[in-house]
Amino acid sequence: MSEEEALEVMQANPAVLQCGPSLMSLGPAEVKLFATVRGLGNKLLPPEARGAALATLGASILLVVAGSNGRLSPEITLLVDTIRPILGAVLATVFFTALYGSARA
Predict the structure, then answer these.
(1) 13 within 8 A of 35, measured Cβ to Cβ
(2) Distance of CA 58 to the CA centre of its chain
(3) What are phi and psi of 65, to 5 degrees?
(4) E strand map for 5-92
(5) What is the mean pLDDT of residues 60-70?
(6) What is the pLDDT of residue 105?
(7) pTM over the 0.90 mark
(8) pLDDT over 80 at 48, yes or no
(9) Exposed e or buried b per residue across 72-90, where buried means at least 16 C-beta atoms within 10 angstroms of its C-beta
(10) ∠ CA 20-25-27, rounded to 5°
(11) CB neighbourhood size of 34 (10 A)
(12) Which terminal Cβ of the chain has fewer Cβ within 10 Å, N or C?
């Protein structure tokens, strides 16, 4: 990637500077996409809320996986049935954004 593109990536996600040689296996499009998504997350969520948001996402995934066996109480099953489409939409959006970025590369 060009120097200008590298500067944009570093401004969007300064943590990329810690990755070192591990970035060599990724293409410029993947690095830019990751930096853009991370930068967007940094803009949308204040630093105090990031840990809670990540924990909520992880707990939601675990709850949906645990609820797939059908052995939970009706209340928890209702919660899982509510969370499942929201979680699916969020993860599908991330997947298709990554797919679109890869296709443009």
Answers:
(1) yes
(2) 11
(3) -65, -45
(4) none
(5) 80
(6) 55
(7) no
(8) yes
(9) eeeeeeebbeebeeebeee
(10) 100
(11) 20
(12) C
